[in-house]
């Protein structure tokens, strides 16, 4: 598995986790800790997507 494939897989997992937290937030709300995790996952996803895009643009 190449580095790019690992980053893509990580993004898929982050998107799935973010989606589940959004659903939970819509139904019951998030606790402080869950909200913190949610925000960090979004930051990680944006960072990872940016890195992937820069790698794709170089190729």
Number of strands: 0
Count of discrete alpha- or pi-helical segments spanning 4 or more residues: 2
Mean pLDDT: 94
How big a fraction of the residues is strand? under 5%
Q: Specify the overall morphology.
A: elongated
Rg of Cα set = 14 Å
Q: Which structural category fits the helices and strands?
A: mainly alpha
Helix content: over 70%
In whole angstroms, how far apart are the ends?
Answer: 18 Å
Largest sheet: none
Low-pLDDT ranges: none
N-to-C order of helices and strands: HH
Keywords: Coiled coil
Organism: Paenibacillus mendelii
Coiled coil: 4-58
Protein name: Fur-regulated basic protein FbpA
Structural overview:
With 59 residues, this protein is an all-alpha fold. It is 88% helix and 0% strand. It is built from two helices and no strands. The protein has helices at residues 3-27, 32-58. Helix 1 (3-27) runs antiparallel to helix 2. The longest helix has 27 residues, at 32-58. The protein starts with a helix and ends with a helix. The model has no long low-confidence stretch (mean pLDDT 94).
């Amino acid at each position: 598995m190449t580095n790019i494939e690992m980053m893509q897989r990580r993004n898929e997992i982050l998107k799935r986790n973010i989606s589940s937290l959004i659903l939970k937030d819509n139904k019951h709300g998030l606790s402080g800790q869950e909200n913190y995790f949610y925000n960090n996952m979004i930051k990680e996803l944006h960072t990872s997507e940016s890195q992937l895009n820069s790698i794709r643009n170089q190729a």
